[in-house]
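Posting this for the archive.
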Amino acid sequence: MRAPLLPRGFSTPRILQRGRPRVPQLTRWTPSTTRIRNNSNGNAGKEEQQRDSIPNSLFWTPTRALLVSTLAAGLGYGYASNRQASQTVTKPQYGSVKDFENAVAELRAKLGEDSISTDEDDLYRHGYSEWSSLNAERLPVAISYPQTTEDVVEIAKVCHKYRMPMIPFSGGSSLEANFSAPYGGMTIDFAMMNKVLEIHENDMDVVVQPSIGWMDLNEQIKGTGLFFPVDPGPSAMIGGMVGTNCSGTNAVRYGTMKDWVINLTVVLADGRVIKTRRRPRKTSAGYNLTGLLVGSEGTLGIVTEATLKLAPIPEETRVGVVSFPTIRDCASTAQQLIRRGIQVQCMEILDDVQMDVINRAGGTGRTWSVSPTLFFKFSGTSAGVEDSINLTRELAKTNHAQAFQFAKDEREAHDLWSARKQSLWSMMALRKEGSEVWSTDVAVPISRLPDIIEISKKELDDLGIFASILGHIGDGNFHSSIMYDRNDPEEKTRVEKVVYDMVDRALEMEGSCTGEHGIGLGKKDSLRKELGEETIDIMRSLKRSLDPNWLLNPGKIFDIEK
C-alpha cells in the first residue's frame, strides 16, 4: 500500500480542533449604533441576533483576548507543519498586551467609539465558524468596522505601528478557517462597505466595495441588462470571493473570479494604498498585480474596492435535470459534453444522497429521482438553447440517462436552482445534535473526473454515514460533504482518512487540493505536497516583500518564516 501523502489529523489540538459546540446564530452582526456617513443602504437598522449558548471556556473578555493573543506571539504557531520535525517556524514578533490596548484606544479615538468592538459575542462570531473544517481556538482581540478606504488606511497604520495582526472579513462563509485569528489581532469587518460605487453600462463593468454580496449586486444592476456571473454560495461577498478566487455554478461557461476582476484598490500592511491597474479590459502594462492578489486570502493586502466585468443577461435560459444509474455515468456525460464543446451555462453534479436532501428539504414543487443527477442551465438565443439541449440529450442517452425533465416555468426553474445552491444549508438543517459537517473540494483535469468521482463515491458510501458528492463538475471541480459525530473519535478518524485520501488522489491525478475553497488553515500541508517547498518559498518571499512583519492574515496558505 502506498504511503499517504497527507496527514490524517493535526498533532496540536490545543491550537486547532473540529469539536466545537453547535452555534445556532450564524448571521452577520452589524453594530446598531455605528456612525453612518451615508445610511441609504439600510444597514444601520440590522439587529444583532443572539446565539443560544456558548460554553464557559469560550467567554472572552477583552483583557483575556489581549492576553491570549500576546501568548500566541510568544509561543509561536504550532500547527500542521510540525509533522515534519526538520521544519521549524520563527515566531512572529507581535505587540504586547499594552500595545494592543493602545491600538484599540487609538482607533476608537480616530474612527469613533462604535467603530471598534470588543464584545464577547462579536469576537466569537468573527473567530469561529461551524461551516469550517477546522477552527482556531484563539479569537480576535477586537473587530473594526470601517466605512471607507481612508478608514482602512487608519486601521492599517495603527496596527502596523503596534504590530497587531489584521484579518479581513466580509461574508464569513469560508470553509477552511480563512478568516480565523490564530494570533489574535484586529478583524476588519467590511459590513459597512457594501455599496455599488460606479456602474459603467457601456463598458460593462462595475466598481463595488468588498461586503456587497454577488446576489445583491445582481439585484441592483438587473435593470441594465447586465449581470455578474460568478455565483458561489448565496452568502458569499465580493471581498471573500476575491480572496479565495472562487467560482460557482456558472464556471463551465463564465470561468472563475480571476476572469472577472479588472482592478483592485488595496491597502497594504503599512497603510499605503495602491490600485493594481486601470479600467480597460486589456493591458500588458507591467506585472499582473490583480492576478497576484486574487486568491491571496488577504495575506498580501486588504481589498477595499474592486472593478468587475459584467456580462449581458442571456436572451433565454432553461433549467434541465437528468438522472443516471451510476455516478460514473453521470461524470462521464459531463466529461464528454465538455470535450465536444456543447454549450451550457451551468453543469452541476449531485449524487443520490444529495438528491434525497433536496427532496426532504422541499421547496421545488415536485419529488426528484434519488439517483446521481446532472443539473443543467442552457442559455443564449432560443435557437442556440434548443440546439444545445438536443445535443446534450443525445449524449446523455449514450450513458444510460433517464428522461430529461425541464422546469415548467421561470418560478420552478428558480426554485430548482435555489435547491442546488442551498444544498449545504439543507444538509446542515437535517443534521442531528452533536454532529459536524465537513465540506471539502478538489479539482482534477476533466479526463480524470469519472475515475476520481467513482472511487470517492464508493469510499464515502463505505463510511456508512451521511456523506455526499456535489459540485461544479463542468470545470473539473467537485465537493464532498460528510456529516459525522464529533464525539466519536473512531468515526472522526475514518472521515479524516476518506477526506485526505480524496485530496491525495486528486494530486496523483495532477489535480489540485482545492478548486475554490482556498487554503486557509485547513490545507497548508496539501498545498506543500501539491506545489513543493521551493514554490512555497517563492510565495513567502512575495509575502515578505509586501508584509515583512507578517501582519496580514498570518498563518494562512503557508506557515510563518521557516
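Residues 489-508 form the longest helix (20 residues). The chain is about 35% helix and 15% strand.
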